[in-house]
């Protein structure tokens, strides 16, 4: 049958989605990888994103792999998960594990299982987006917050982190930005991209500021176990009696398995403010709308957590590597005149470095710096613009030490080549 075509097709993709997703790290790193030249016979060195799972030193524990295999083989986890928040034994195990560092006990009801931390970020944006609501986000930050806020029409305002003060939150700028439509502020601790770990004192100040403003704190603790400096990691939930906290976490960085897509969103709310204001109910609605984390991964959680001894061995091994690579990175950057790092990382896998463009010939901004670096040296860094901080770059030091050294040596050669005569 011949049917005449319509004069025009009426459908169109959601342009808003394209605009929002262009902010994500994946997008920026992807475009840099595409500009890798094929003239360079050397291996490309990826210091742009934080996924060291491909390196032998960061291969996850056998105990975690066993837990997943056993869960699949048991045949008990082939169904949809019947509980909205996730399987009860998994939530109970996570609640217990996270309670070890808190002054009160979490219950399984405080835990929502997610497909990774990113899913938690999305749920937060979904739940908080109201007609005029706004959320306060850190600059530099993790761009997915802006992407999801923007997609859900949740206005975001950026407060500064202060490089000379260990990248602490500029609480004055938080107060200046907030108004009666502000609903929450986000902190990331240990911090991506800055590598900072906040002191207990600073977290208390954050909680007090949130209380004064009547807002909640969203604490992204994806790197909760990745700290190797002098400040011990303190969960934001410690101060949840001052202001309510939603904590996000996942196995991605804890076990170096970002491909497993398993995380949690936890309400730290000893005063039941999140339930009274309907936030908990809305979180349940989010869970209804989206698909659960794979049931067998949920089923594997109790065994993963029970076998702590094997995890602890693995953990001390990777922490040692990261402490060493952070040292290497800091020392090598110090030795390159046009780069400046105000803070030696204490946690996460990243270091932020400022470019002194006045010393460089024909490089006008961080993006151009990164593009030329890819083309000439096959080294990939993340330009600061992607994180809201122009003319900085983020270096991931979570690689095998010889690879990192090679990458940083190439970076030095690149800077020397472009150094103003
Ligand atoms: C990696 C990362 C995430 C995403 O974690 P997934 O669990 O893999 O979704 C979220 N927040 C920060 C700060 C991250 O670095």
TrEMBL record:
<feature type="modified residue" description="N6-(pyridoxal phosphate)lysine">
    <location>
        <position position="253"/>
    </location>
</feature>
<dbReference type="InterPro" id="IPR004839">
    <property type="entry name" value="Aminotransferase_I/II_large"/>
</dbReference>
<protein>
    <recommendedName>
        <fullName>Aminotransferase class I/classII large domain-containing protein</fullName>
    </recommendedName>
</protein>
<dbReference type="InterPro" id="IPR015421">
    <property type="entry name" value="PyrdxlP-dep_Trfase_major"/>
</dbReference>
<feature type="domain" description="Aminotransferase class I/classII large">
    <location>
        <begin position="47"/>
        <end position="411"/>
    </location>
</feature>
<dbReference type="InterPro" id="IPR005958">
    <property type="entry name" value="TyrNic_aminoTrfase"/>
</dbReference>
<dbReference type="GO" id="GO:0030170">
    <property type="term" value="F:pyridoxal phosphate binding"/>
</dbReference>
<dbReference type="Pfam" id="PF00155">
    <property type="entry name" value="Aminotran_1_2"/>
</dbReference>
<dbReference type="InterPro" id="IPR015422">
    <property type="entry name" value="PyrdxlP-dep_Trfase_small"/>
</dbReference>
<comment type="similarity">
    <text>Belongs to the class-I pyridoxal-phosphate-dependent aminotransferase family.</text>
</comment>
<keyword id="KW-0663">Pyridoxal phosphate</keyword>
<dbReference type="GO" id="GO:0006572">
    <property type="term" value="P:L-tyrosine catabolic process"/>
</dbReference>
<dbReference type="InterPro" id="IPR015424">
    <property type="entry name" value="PyrdxlP-dep_Trfase"/>
</dbReference>
<dbReference type="GO" id="GO:0004838">
    <property type="term" value="F:L-tyrosine-2-oxoglutarate transaminase activity"/>
</dbReference>
